[in-house]
Amino acid sequence: MNIQRWIARREIYWQRLDNLLRQVEKKGLKSLQAGEIRELASLYRSIAADLARARTQKVGNTLIHSLQSLTTRAYTQIYQGSRRQEWQAVVEFYKWGLPAVIQQTFVYIVFATSLFLLGGLVAWWYAWQDPSFMSLIVPESLISRVRDDRQLWMGSIVGIEPLASSSIMVNNLSVSFGAVAGGMTAGAYTAYLMIFNGLLIGAIGTLVGQNHLAYPFWAFVFPHGSIELPAIFLAGGAGFLLGKAILFPGNYRRRDALKFYGSQAVQLVYGIVPMLIIAGIIEGFFSPNPSVPDAFKYLVGMGLFILLVMYCSRKKS
Prior knowledge:
The chain is mostly helical and 317 residues long. It is built from eleven helices and no strands. α1 (3-27) runs parallel beside α3 and α7 packs parallel to α9. The longest helix is centred in the N-terminal third of the chain and has 44 residues, at 61-104.
């Protein structure tokens, strides 16, 4: 290989890559046009090959170091810049994308919430009318503790907060993912989970009310429940989206409907996971803390719920 001729032929490309990199390093990757970004990637690959050839032909340390510097700078901008853009996309999704999806799928979320509330009302009614109904929903050990010992069960969390918090997160995530996956049963299992959880909270709420422990019980529930329950309702909405795709694909082919509604369901899941992690931390460390006044727990719960509603109502101008 004629080294001087090869250098003269390739030098124009090295200079072009250097110019593009200087622009990116000064103004960022967004300053390039789409064609220039493709050119940057193409030049990086070809000059990486030039570097390998220069090393093989032993053209001199100065040129090798120059090409090494070029390829390193290009690699940094292409791949690390890509990662920065990915993180920016994540921030943009949680800032505007998730609220938009929640608003678009609001009907399904409301339907899931309605089934939960229906279950709660049914349990409340029957638990007051027929004491034996309670034992069908609530574990006997919990009933005995509340009725006989006049105690709530949250005190068992104190002292094992990290373990309790992680266990709570795992349980809530399993329930939520079950609700989402239940959409593949045409929404039947999702409906069952919404109604059953409503029955459970309704029966427990009646139990503590009958035994004059409602105030401390709801003080425990409010802080984390203000985030945890909406997350479960989002999961129910995601499940019903999949159920709609199966039962009522409309003008779509069923496969295309699953892709479309499945995409919305997945975006809801991206919102559910961080919500349940936050709720699990609150439930493990804050909600059962005996040193925190119950009145303050109510205030925290209501404040968190108001903030969540404000977040979900955001619209990008």
